[in-house]
Write a structure and sequence with these properties.
Layout (H helix, E strand, L loop, with lengths): L1 H11 L14 E3 L5 E5 L2 H7 L4 E8 L2 H6 L5 E8 L5 E7 L3 H13 L4 H5 L1
Antiparallel strand pairs: 1-2, 2-5, 3-4, 4-5
């Protein structure tokens, strides 16, 4: 909504025709546990990538659950361009997934690589 408002105000009041960029806008389903995605899905990456893609998955116990002893798990998936190591998409199911994907969306839009996210 912020991006759309900025585009509208630049176009109407600033004389700079601007279209919103909907690439890498995260989406969420606020269920229990919440789901969230950003960027390309596996199929979209296969259809649009120039070369091979790699899929990385991880299941983990969120750090906030370690002290309480809760065994609620999270799962995360990264879709990565095999040649450039650039992250094309991500998805997550688990506590705080929508908030985590908001931050990850910025990194992905900036061209983050898997190496940058995992080191």
């Amino acid at each position: 909504a912020l991006m759309e408002g900025t585009s509208f105000s630049k176009t109407v009041f600033g004389g700079q025709p601007t279209k919103p960029d909907y690439n890498y806008v995260p989406c969420a389903v606020f269920c229990v546990p919440p789901l969230s995605v950003v960027g390309f899905s596996e199929q979209q990456a296969i259809d649009q990538a120039k070369g091979d893609i790699l899929i990385f998955t991880s299941t983990f116990n969120p750090m906030k659950n370690t002290i309480s002893g809760r065994q609620e798990k999270s799962i995360m998936k990264l879709v990565v361009d095999a040649e450039t190591d650039k992250v094309l998409g991500a998805s997550m199911c688990g506590p705080d997934a929508p908030e985590i994907m908001q931050g990850l969306a910025i990194a992905i839009k900036c061209g983050a690589t898997k190496a940058q996210l995992t080191t």
